[in-house]
Amino acid sequence: MGRLRRSRTHHSIRDTYRKYRTRNYTRDLDQIHDDIKPENAQKLKNQPLDPDKPGLGQNYCIECARHFITEAAFKEHIRGKLHKKRLKQLKEEPYTQAEADAAAGLGKPDNGKRGGRSLVSEDVAMADD
């Protein structure tokens, strides 16, 4: 650029990235796993009319957590690559807190079954050669 630059640049805003990231936030995969459960899926499919949502909240893809304006746009989305990719991601079960604790070494130790087989004299005896 030349010597004179536009004055309306975001030079003094510290966290522009954070601002836009928060605005464009989507639901995480573990939240969507909860939505897919039958009791929650029925509520999301049969939502009341809401004028604030696209398509009055009637065309909602649970797997992608997106609203669509028309039924045609929703059906086009179902056939698309992004929806199929999300379905593949959702096949994997989300991590649980118990798995996270076990990975960190905080879980209870797995010492085998209680009252297991104790050593018998035959196990301890050495071969006579």
From TrEMBL:
Signal peptide: none annotated. SUPFAM superfamilies: beta-beta-alpha zinc fingers. It comes from Lichtheimia ramosa. It is found in: Cytoplasm; Nucleus. The lineage of its organism: Eukaryota, Fungi, Fungi incertae sedis, Mucoromycota, Mucoromycotina. Pfam families: zf-C2H2_jaz (PF12171). Keywords: Cytoplasm, Metal-binding, Nucleus, Ribosome biogenesis, Zinc, Zinc-finger. Residues 61-83 form the C2H2-type domain. This is C2H2-type domain-containing protein. GO terms for biological process: ribosomal large subunit export from nucleus. One of its GO terms (cellular component) is nucleus. GO terms for molecular function: nucleic acid binding; ribosomal large subunit binding; zinc ion binding. Its main location: cytoplasm. Residues 92-129 are annotated as: Disordered. Belongs to the ZNF593/BUD20 C2H2-type zinc-finger protein family.
